[in-house]
Amino acid sequence: MSQAQEHARLDALHKLDLLDTPPSEAFDRITRMASQIFGLPIAAVSLTDHDRQWFKSRVGVDHWCIPRDKAPCAEVAETTGTVLIPDLLADDCYAGSHLARQGVRFYAGAPLVTRDGFGLGALCVLGTEPRRASATEMAALHDLAQMVMNQIELQHAFGRIDPLSGLPNRIQFLDDLEDLGRDRPGEKRLLVLVDLARGDQLTAAVRALGSSFLDQLVKDAGRALRSSLATDQKAYHVAATQFAFVARPGEDTAARVAALSKLMEGSGGEFDLRFGMTTAIGLASFVAGAAAAHDVLRMGHNAACDARAQQVPVTSYSPWNDEAHQRRFRLLNDFGAALGSPGQLKLVVQPRIDLRSGGCVGAEALLRWTHPELGNIPASEFIAIVEQTSLVRPMTGWVLHAALSRLQAWQSAGLDLDLSVNVSAANLEESDFAAQVQLLLLNYRIRPERLELEVTESAVMANAQRALRQLEMLDGAGVRVAIDDFGTGYSSLAYLQRLPAKVVKIDRTFVRRLPEEERARTLVCSMVSLSHDLGYRVVAEGVETADALQLLGAIGCDEAQGNYLARPMELDAFERWLDAHPSAATGRTAAA
Ligand code: C2E
Ligand code: MG
Ligand code: MG
User: Fold this and answer.
1) Nearest 5°: CA angle at 506, between 502 and 508?
2) Where in the numbering of this chain does the EAL domain appear (predicted)?
């Protein structure tokens, strides 16, 4: 037996996960039968490991293993043939063996052979006297060895076949992909992953029809996929409603996938997936042996997700999308830790200037995150991610604490300044948000009118009724509400008038175009006058030039904020900046 063959044989044995497992009655029953048929005291299911014979089952033996060297069972495993030794002491090869030294004289062993032809070991019977074996006895031993193999394969299949579809599952898929890497390293292949339906479609169908619908769907789809593949091509059931297969080299996958897509959606005729489920197919090409099996599966899954997002039936894996997703996932994962570790998060503030007096009336608090490995993460990036999760609550909590503690310091120092804090849609959905804010104001002994909360139109519209309740409570408590990024949403001013807001912040996209575009000037002009008519104070965001500032003054805008006036800066820097730019002595007056 060559070294490579022995290596593959050991690999097959180890993959079965049999070695060093506890005895089981299923095997012992067969071993006892072998001992009875031969009328001999010793029998065993003996597996040939690297350097030992290990007994999965044994009768009349105390130990678990013997050395492989000069063990007749090793010969059975290596040759995958029967070995019969009437008298070990009379045998040239085995006279000096471990067994002979232990007093064993007779040996008969039948091979345990896998479907792939690997000899795992032997079912053997041993006697302490020399003996012959009849053809009937040997045939029985052979049959019993076959039964041992069936038992081994049955045990191995358990947990590898999906009971619903009857197809090999993800564990088997990963194993087979690793085998492919070993058997055909460097070969280019394509993974096809079929995702049967969108989550919401499945939920809706199960709600209406019960979970047996889902079972049927999966069975039908599995059968349809199986029958669309060549007989020697395996279909796998890799997740509850996902199937996969590896296309063969040179196969016309475009045509195959197009047909598959039709078939899965039920337009292919015989197979009826019913109720308009949308199938998404992800393709991932890979080089056998070069990528880890679970990465190949992940790439296929990613591609199917991209197909869903792009609302197309089929998409190929895109490393760029994958990277972006990995980054989003990582940021989300790490933000939780950032909330608890000092130094990663900080507030900066950007001054707001009263356009009549030219003095600073307050500032907007903006959150900054320095990731320990990725460095500074733009607020526009991480906040959009965090806002999708429950972490938004502790995030806003963190910002409010930091903002109020600084407001407290300003108040003690006699600084006449307000601070604005941005609030997310999800915060407005918390039923106790307003109450929490009031509690914080009390704890920090801050007058409510010192705090302004900025909400965007879309944040309010996300769940208008709940949001309105919170905003009304905040307004009732004296906290000022501002509409941020005004003009970018779809709501009309008439609708916004229902909001208990006092301030409108015109989005920087309009302000930026002011100096060059007549249209932008007209727009800002009417926004300002309408807002004033409705009783709002108007702030222009993102003022970048002297021209824009001058125009805003002429239009009658109340306040401005932007890099031309002052960039967002750290709190200490802001306090130094204030020394050179005194706060507005007049304070705020109602605009209208
Ligand atoms: P926003 O509330 O509209 O904040 C104004 C953004 O405009 C800030 O971006 C600010 O740095 C930027 N900006 C100010 N002046 C100029 C200018 O002259 N030109 C330009 N191009 N940009 C200017 P930042 O800090 O990156 O924040 C982006 C967005 O992230 C904010 O938009 C806000 O929606 C959100 N955000 C920031 N901090 C927080 C926070 O603590 N909580 C929540 N919920 N959202 C926050
Ligand atoms: Mg804002
Ligand atoms: Mg804004």
Assistant:
1) 150
2) 328-582
Pairing verdict, β 569-570 and 345-354: antiparallel
Ligand 3 center to 561 CA (angstroms): 10
* pLDDT digit string, tens, across residues 462-478: 888 899 999 999 999 99
Residue closest by Cα to atom 28 of ligand 1: 380
Nearest CA-CA partner of 271 in 312, 226, 236? 226
**Displacement of CA 169 from its chain's centroid (Å):** 19
Packing angle, helices 319-340 and 379-386, rounded to 10: 80
How far apart are alpha carbons 206 and 66 in whole angstroms? 57
CB 444 within 8 A of CB 417: no
Contacts of 113 by beta carbon, 8 Å cutoff, 6+ apart: 80, 119, 120, 149
Q: Which fold would CATH assign to domain 170-317?
A: Alpha-Beta Plaits (3.30.70)
Single-letter amino acid, residue 487 = G
- Comparing C-alpha atoms, which of 164, 191, 221, 194 is closest to residue 294? 191
Measured CA to CA in angstroms, residue 130 lies from 40, 89, 103, 110 at distances of 11, 9, 11, 18
Which mutation among 346, 349, 370, 383 tests ligand 1's pocket best, with the greatest number of atoms within 8 A of CB? 383
Tokens coding 477: 């408590």
Q: How many residues does the chain have?
A: 592
- The answer to whether domain 3-156 and domain 170-317 are alike in fold is no
* pLDDT for res 492: 66
Residues 349-361: pLDDT tens digits? 999 999 999 999 9
Q: Where are the alpha helices (DSSP H) in 316-423?
A: 319-340, 379-386, 392-412
**Beta carbons within 10 angstroms of residue 77's beta carbon:** 29
Distance 325 CA to ligand 3 centre (A): 26
Topology of the domain covering 3-156 = Beta-Lactamase (3.30.450)
Position 347 scores a pLDDT of: 97
List the helix and strand counts (H, then E) for the chain: 22, 21
Domain residue extents for the chain: 3-156, 170-317
